[in-house]
Amino acid sequence: MRAGRVRREVSDGDEAVVLVLVVVTVSLGMNGYVMARLCRLWGARRGRWFYGRLLLLSISPIAALVLESRIGNGLTGACFTLAMTWLGLCWLLLWILLVQQVLAPILPLPRPAWAVGVCGLACCLALFAAVNARWVTIRREQIPQLPLRIAHLSDIHIGSIGPSVLADIIAATNAFTPDLVLITGDLFDNANPKSRAPAARLAALTAPVVLTSGNHEAYTGYDNVRQMLAGTGIRWLRNDVLEFKSIRIIGVDNSFRADILRSVLDRAAPSPAFTILMNHQPIGFDIAAQHGIGLTLSGHVHNGQLWPFNYVVGVFYPYLKGLHREAGAYLNVSTGTGIWGPPLRLGSHSEVVLLEPLPRT
User: Engineering a disulfide at 28: which of 58, 140, 156, 310 sits with its beta carbon 3.0 to 4.6 angstroms away?
Assistant: First the structure.
């Protein structure tokens, strides 16, 4: 592989701080509503314990995330799993309780019946979502003019997934025998000992592998990412142009705006080779098409991961999943090969995307 460096001009902002503020605010509101409604349905009184538990449950996801990222042992891992599972369950309870509040005047059932029904439905959905999150599916797409077989992975989130899930992902990818593996960011969640150990298993990918940065690489720290990639053979493409066999690959660092993307594409020299753009967030598809990019690969949005969050994410991102076409250019948005946060998937799935040339006629 031969690479040409394109200068990086813009660094990521304080996305981690924004993420913390958003999560805490949403968590307080969501937990407050859910706990208040459950107390009403079960006929429980709200006392001092209510507000203490509200505060504890609201801040537990962030506290557990910080502890797990910095320490990463069995205890912090258990706390992280419990906190994130409750976050996912609370999200499901929120929407079920909102529907129940609308239906209650129409179906005047006793409160205990509503309480059992709401909690039972939420637990059943959470159980299904937990099993679904563990299952990695295969999606095949055919791309005109694509000369190679490519496996597209994204949002693996080593640190949120365990070694057994990572082993399944590697096995499914190798079984395809691709010419190239492209990972569009969020390979790592943190750099604790529990994440560093599985990272070495990435060397088991049999095809050449190229990675571009996601927002979680910035959270993990670029120096830590570089250390964990050492010995894996993975090429980390940061605002670079890379020629591989008969294709050209452009890897762009994560950004919540299209500034970096436009700057890198403007500086990249024209090429007759089929060009693939690796851009973590599914934004700037029109810009890529204008620059003659044949195929853009993105991830980041997880298709919402936990229904109905996909409708919330869809407000900010028009492309949530699948293959899209515009003016002869293609965009493939992965729903994510792993998970982040709640170990649940509902209305979405983890996937390895296999991109193949059109068969010759």
Answer: 58
